[in-house]
Every structure is written in structure tokens, then in C-alpha cells.
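Friendly challenge for the regulars: who can give me the C-alpha cells for this chain first? No prize, just bragging rights.
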Amino acid sequence: MTAAQEIGGFVPDFLALAGTQPDRLFARFAGEPVSFNWLMQASGAIARRLRRRGVQRHDRVAVMQQNSRAALATLYALARAGIAWVPVNAQLRGEGLRYILEHCQPALVIADIDLLPLVAACGAVLPCECVASDDGGTECWLADNTAFDEPPPAPDDPFAVMYTSGTTGPPKGAIVSHRMIRLAGESACRVSAARDGDVFYMWEPLYHIGGAQLLVPPLLRQVTLAMVPRFSASRLWAEVREVGATHIHFLGGILQILLKQAPGLQDRAHGVRIAWGGGCPAHVWRPFEARFGMQIRECYGMTEASSITTWNDNGVVGAVGRPVPWFDVALLDGAGRPVRQGERGEIVVRSLVQGALFPGYFRNPEATAKVLRDGALHTGDVGSLDAEGNLIFHGRLSDSVRCRGENVSAWEVEHVVAGHPDVEDSAMIGVAADIGEQDIKLFVQPKPGQGIDIAGLSAWLSQRLAPYQNPRYIAVVAAFERTPSLRIMKHKLPRASEGCWDRQTQRNS
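First reply, four minutes later:
Bragging rights claimed.
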């Protein structure tokens, strides 16, 4: 596909393949097959149920599901019915979960039965029902042979409202169109060098853009998704051998975790030829390739720009590559001027085709206006270009931390910490991690006359934050150094972990 070609949505491709190749495998989940015909029938049955519940085209449905065959069917049902999917991280709880459920204004909430208590406990006031998904009951849906034959949604209709962590405020719901998720799948095929007959080992959750983009590659190549319930470093190589995987996907510290496993015969006893994704440190690149005998293919992107913006297909270590055909990338200084080669600037993305950039954040015009300016996406990320035009990624301009493959908003964590009865104020920063991009360090200032039980605070936070949001390190300070406007001077907070309480060891380091 070139930038000049018309790019549509993915539902027509799915319907065509289900009609002409019904027995072809789309995926396997934990060994159970998902044929195109099964996915067609199951998604049609769910779409009919949604209509019977009064959910209409362009409504939103919040979905809190772990990966499963039923989750695949649910997402394709929403897509076919033109209903916007609101993916909800299954690890969320408390205030973070309440905010998303209330903000998205859903017509329905669908959750795995074991996650329903979290929905109930978060205190969200909803104008709709919350119903349980039931993987075990999916087969009985197929007894209803009534066709769901509504016309597919338009390419620029909303496919999803995907909430990304805020940096100075609550999470923002990026509106992702059908055209954008199709482009995400196209980009994934390019980054991974996918070809017919490949098998993608898939551990990432569908509610993450890294998982959602894989809804499309089986429509573009004769590839199969080999889905497992969760990532396990100890089981990974046995699982990839069992499913015949040719590809593994990485985010965050996945590669470092695998390198830390004890060497063994399993390191080369697999058929994987490519590890692709984002977040491979330069010092890990060649050692990983040498030990495991596969090629690393790196990329860079964000949800707001159809998931993938640049891709590295030339093996330049430490680079995230050059733009995909539908984007142009510029690096600008604080005054909006291009920086010179080798200098750092904000990564700014322009679309070369209609609809490749998102239209904005749901119910948040202020946040939209900050990032979409003069027809370009101002990412808030910092990069530089080498002499060959390869993009080098240097991190975020804004106040967030990349931990375990997830963006963690300082505002969100600090907002929850503020609810603790003994805390006067707090500040969250990112510090160097043993594995992955960063760990979270939290500074807390006690209320006057109060002490803080750090272990108790950590346990309290574990009930209110997702595991990847819960700070590893906690330090108590008497007071914060502040600017004249009374903002905490985070750049002066110590980055060292020595002397802090460490959640992993439950004691001071």
C-alpha cells in the first residue's frame, strides 16, 4: 500500500474472507481454534444481542475483558455493528476505573464475571447496565442463525475510544477510527515483515493498542494469531515451540526479562525469526539477537497516530527508524522551528493521507487543541535524527513514566495518594529500573503531626492502583522544594533508590 492509495476500514475485508475462506484459522486461543467462520457467526450473534439491548450505531460500549475467544468475538461484533469499543484495562480499579466508566458515557458495560466486583466497588454512577461476558456460553449463541447483515461502518467512524494515561490530568480518550486501526494493522505487517504462513505469538491484551492492532494482520496476510492468556518468561519458549510461532512481540522490559532467564537449549530450539515491537534498549539489541537467533525490528508510535509512526527495517541499533508511508515526521524546538541533524526536538507527525491521525480526544477539546495544531500531532516525545534520517527516541517531555510497557501518569498516581489520611502532599517520578524502562518512585510528605507507615501505604495503594501504577520505591520527606507558583520542583528530587523503602523487598534498600 502506498500513501496515494485509498485506505478504508477492516470490516469489509473480514466479511469477504469469512465468506470465501470460512475454514481458515484466524487465531488459536490456548490451543482452541478460532476460524473465520466461527468468528463471523459468534460476532454476528453478539451484534444481534447488542441491538436487542438497544445499543445503536455510534454508541459506546465499555469492555473489561481478559483475552479469550469471546473477547475476540465481542470486538468484532462491536466493529461490525458500528459501536465504539471502550477498552478498559482489566488491572484497573478504584478511582481510575470509575473515571473512565463515567467519562465515556457508555450505553453498556461488558465485563468478565470475575471482574464485575471491581466495577461495582469503584463507585461509578452509570446510566446503563453492566453485564457479564461468558466465554463458556459462546457456543450456544451460534444456535441463532439469524444473519447480521447491516452495512459495515464508514472508514472514519469511531472504532474505539482508547484511554491513554494523562500527564497533568485524568486519562484522555483517544478516538480511533476504523481507518486508523486498519493502518495500525498495515504497519504491524511492515514492522514484523509478516508473510503468508506466519504465526504471531500473542500475549499482549486486546485492551492495549499493542494487542488491538493485531486484530487486522490476519486479514492482510495469511497469518494466524497464537494467543495465550498472559506473558510468562519461563513458559514462553515452550509455548512458541508448541504453537509453531514465527514472531514474538515485545514492549517495555520483555527482552530484558528473557535475557535474565538462565541460558539453555530452549534458547535456540524454536522457530521464531523476528522479535518486533517498541522499547528495545541499544545495549540489549545485539546480545538478544545473538543469544536467541532472531532479528529485532523496532518501531515507534502512539495511539493517536494509528499506533505506529516509524519502523526500523535496516537494523540500526538504537533507532526507531523512518516513517511509514502515510506519515511525515519533523523535529521542532520550543519555538516550533526544525532542529538540526543530531539535535533533539519534539516529534511532530503529519498525515500524508486523510484520517491517519486521530480526530481528537473524547469530550476533551482542551487536550485535543494542545496536541493537534496546524494539522499536525505534537506528540510530547523527544527525538533526534542521525545522518541517514533514522529517528532516535529520547523519552517524554511531559510528566509521566513508562513502566512495564504502560504509560503511568504522575497526576493519576498523586491524585490517588492524596486520598490517604496521613499524606499532605506527594510527587511521583521515574527512576532507573533493573528491568524495563523505568520504575516508579513516590515521595510523600506527611500531614503535620502525623507519621506514615510506608508498608501500610503501599498496601493501601495496591487496592486503588493497577499493579503497574503502584510505586516500587517510597521515600518520606519533611517538605518539598517548590517554585514561586508553589509547584513541586521534581527535577531536584533524588533519582537514587538507595535508602528508599522497596516494595519488592518490603524494606529499605
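The two ends are 53 Å apart (CA to CA). The first strand starts at residue 25 and ends at 29. Your move, everyone else.
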